[in-house]
Specification:
Elements lengths: L1 H17 L5 H5 L3 H7 L10 H11 L12 H7 L4 H15 L3 H35 L7
Helix pairs in contact: 1-4, 6-7
Length: about 140
């Protein structure tokens, strides 16, 4: 009886070594049954404890990884990509060229204020969304 269990574990270990991870984009395009067959998962019973432990050692925990966030300064500079902001900055440059310094300063100050307010609002929105995401754990259902 003991030898049979050992043989079964060795067979399971050999099968586990053959299973490779599937990139998320590829997995999303597969049918559930096809994916279960490829990953050697029983849809009714799931994975054996041995399989879970082996796969966890080999591939790590089954966790969603958040995208790397951009640096704050880059998000601020991205606010300047708005076509209206670019148009206002161009008009400030034209004002400088025509020696209308008061207009150039006024336009530039207005742009800085608008961009800063937009950045702060976007930053706060992102932080609020992050907090909401912490309350709802990511799940996969099919």
């Amino acid at each position: 009886m003991m030898q049979s269990e050992d043989e079964s574990e060795l067979k399971s270990l050999h099968q586990e070594k053959e299973i490779e991870a599937i990139p998320p984009k590829t997995a999303c395009q597969c049918q559930v049954e096809e994916l279960a067959k490829t990953l050697q998962v029983d849809l009714e019973r799931g994975l054996s404890e041995f399989s879970v432990l082996h796969r966890r050692v080999k591939h790590g925990w089954n966790e969603l990884v958040a995208d790397n966030t951009e640096p704050v300064w880059k998000k601020y500079l991205d606010q300047f990509k708005n076509p209206l902001i670019l148009l206002l900055l161009a008009s400030a440059v034209v004002s400088l060229i025509t020696k209308e310094y008061e207009d150039a300063v006024s336009i530039t100050m207005a742009v800085i204020i608008v961009v800063t307010v937009a950045f702060v609002q976007e930053y706060r929105s992102e932080k609020s969304l992050e907090e909401l995401n912490k309350l709802v754990p990511p799940e996969c259902s099919w």
